Amino acid sequence: MIPARKSALTVVFGKMKVADQLNLVKNMNVDRETKDALRQCFIASMNYQSTSKENLEKSKTLIRKTNGICEISSRSAAFTAGSALKLKRWKDFDEVLPFTICCPPVIQNSLKIMGLAQQLKFDEALNELENVLMLEEIVFGTENYCVSDQALDILCDEIKKAEDSIEKMKRFRNLQRIVTKYNRRTTKTIDDLLFSPLRINSSSTISQSSSLPSEFLNSQKFQDFVKDIPYQK
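The structure corresponding to this sequence follows.
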């Protein structure tokens, strides 16, 4: 585990020029591995804004080179999944989505529902929407356990366009009412969520694990780490 710093930093995306962002990372009082992860995250965010196949491939290369999983690398993966979503590159989307596991759940859930909806996998998308209601709210007073209205709108529109979708629409409307009742919706778009500030504190260290995401999730190291993820507020 990388030695932790006592101070906390807040990283804001998309507010500065590329050179200024990279220079900011260079001057941060954090570990070299954390600087590398932040640099990759800034690059992934810029590639997301460009929406080109070439830059998507560059972001995927960065994700593959990641030495471990933390909220910083997970945000990089989220930007990359967002790029694949905009380009409708579903194989790439499915490849990088598991690496978003340390993002606030609202980011991963919204991306997943949007991707499944646009692939016309309505049952899976509705299951994911149902799973939002099952999330245990650990950090209160945040939107971490919500789903973006943008994801709901896309799912609704795709179901409307499909044939023989009356039953699926009924299920969607029922789930929509429930997530509304229990305040599990956010008006933030996927862009708003992806570019939300990233807070780095002593728990934002990179786990030096070469395990695949599914294996890493079952490790005690991950269970201890995830309790202290610096959720957005």
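The first helix runs from residue 18 to 26.
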